[in-house]
Amino acid sequence: KIAVFWHRRDMRLNDNAGLYHALKSDFPVLPLFIFDKTILDELDDKRDRRVEFIMRAVEEMKEKLEKEDSSLLVKYGVPLKVWKEIVGEYDVAEVYTNHDYEPYAKKRDGKVAEFLEKKDIPFHTYKDQVIFEKEEILTNKGTPYTVFSPYSKSWQEKLHGSKEKNFYVKPYPTEKYFKNLFKTKKLPILTLEEMGFERMPDEEFPPKKVRDEKLEKYDELRDYPAAPGTSRLSIHLRFGTISIRELAQQAMKESKTFLSELIWRDFYQQILWNFPHVGEGKAFRSEYDRIKWRNNEEEFKKWCDGMTGYPIVDAGMRQLNATGYMHNRLRMITASFLVKDLLIDWRWGEAYFDKKLQDYDLAANNGGWQWAAGSGTDAAPYFRIFNPTTQAKKFDPQNKFIKEWIPEINELDYPDPIVDHKEARERCLKAYKDALNG
Ligand code: FAD
C-alpha cells in the first residue's frame, strides 16, 4: 500500500505542508503531478511559457526524487479520470495534497475526494501556499475583511501573536523524511510535444531567490519600471517552486514593504475563497455591473498591441507581449487606462492578462483588475483616475523604460493618442455616475 502526494501549486519538495504530512504517514509516498487536460485545452498558443515552466519544475522534482531511489508519477488527462487510472495501477491507501482556492480547483478536488471516498481512500488537504487562509483572519464581527489595511494589521498581529515564535512561517522539514518515499524505478514521462505543446528551450525565467540587498532597496525602487527593483518571484510563488514561509521570513527581516506585498497576495486569496463570485466574472460590488461599457474592439486591439499613443501604457503592454511579465506600476496604469480612459469592460483586460502573464493568478489578477475598475475590495473612489502622462513623469522620469520599449517614440509612425485624457476622464465619470445612481 502507498500514499500518493498530489502536487499542484506547490511544485517543490522542500518545505511543503502536504508532502510533509504524507511522509509522516504509515505508507511509503509516491509524489504525483497531473498535466490537467481541462486547463491545457484552453490555451490557444502551443508555445506557452507557463507550460514550459511547469515542465521544467516537473523535471527538476523528478530528478531529485530519483536521486532518492523514488520517482515522480507524471500523468496527462482530466484529473478525475486520471485518479481512476491510478487507483487501478497502485494500491493507494491515502491521498495527500494542498489547498487550492480557485473555483475550478474546488470543484475538481470535490469530485476527486468524492470518488476516493467511495473507495475508502481518505483525501487529506493542507494549507501551504499562503500564510493565512480562508477564515483565519476575520474582523471582530467574525466576517472576512474586504479592506486591505485592517486585514494587514490583523494578519501581522496573528503572525506575531503565536505562542511559539514565528510559528506560522516555520518551514516543514520534508527532507528529514525522504526515506519514506516509495522506492521505484524511474517512471516514464510524456513530452510536451505529446501533449500538443512546444518546448521553449531558450526561455529564461527569473532566479528562484531574491537577494537581501535587493530587498533593502525595495521600498525605494519598487515603483520604477526601469529599475530592477522588485523580486521577480511572482512566477515562483504562482507555481510554488519557492516556499511562501521561507520568503515571508526573509521579508520579515529585510523589508516591511515587501512583506506587505506578500500580505496582498494572501488578501486576494482569501477574497476569492470568501467571495467566490469574483472568480466567476462578477464585480465584487454588484452595482458596478451596471456600467455601460463602450467596448470598442478597435481600441481594445490598440491597447493590446501597445499602440494607444500613450507611451507609458504602450511600453507596459509591449513588455507584457514580449516577455510575459509586466511591472506592477504598469499593470495599474494599463488597467486603469483600459477601464477608465477607454471605458472597456475590465473583464476584457483580465482575460488578456490571463492569456499573457507568466505569473497569471486568478486571485491576484482579478483583485488587480477590480481595484483598477473601482468595483472591487479596497477600491479607490472611482473619481480618482490615473493620468497616464503624469504617471509617466513620476515613475519613468528619464523616459528610460519608455525608450527601451518604444524605440520609434520620436518618429512619425508612433501613433497620436487615441483619446484625449481630459475628455475620456469626463466620459468615464459620467458612465460611473449613471451606473451607480441608477
Ligand atoms: P514584487 O513587488 O517583488 O512582489 C513580491 C510578490 O508579492 C509578488 O511576486 C506577488 O506574489 C506578491 N504581490 C505583489 N503585489 C501584489 C498584489 N497587488 N496582489 C497580489 N500579490 C501581490 N500578480 C500575480 O502574481 N499574478 C497576476 O496575475 C497579477 N495580475 C495583476 C493584474 C493587475 C491589473 C495588477 C494591478 C496587479 C497584478 N498582480 C498580479 C500583482 C503584481 O503586479 C505582481 O504580483 C507583481 O508585479 C509581480 O512582480 P514581482 O514578483 O517582481 O513583485
From TrEMBL:
Cofactor comment: Binds 1 FAD per subunit.
GO biological process: nucleobase-containing compound metabolic process; response to light stimulus; response to stress
Signal peptide extent: none
Sites annotated Electron transfer via tryptophanyl radical: W293, W346, W369
Keyword Cell division: no
Top-rank taxon, per record: Bacteria
Record: residues binding FAD: 218, 230-234, 258, 261-268, 359-361
Short name of any one Pfam family annotated for the protein: DNA_photolyase
Cofactor entry: (6R)-5,10-methylene-5,6,7,8-tetrahydrofolate; FAD
Annotated keywords: Chromophore, FAD, Flavoprotein
Record domain Photolyase/cryptochrome alpha/beta: where: 1-131
GO MF entries: deoxyribodipyrimidine photo-lyase activity; DNA binding; FAD binding
Similarity-based family: Belongs to the DNA photolyase family.
Protein name: Deoxyribodipyrimidine photo-lyase
Gene (UniProt): phrB1
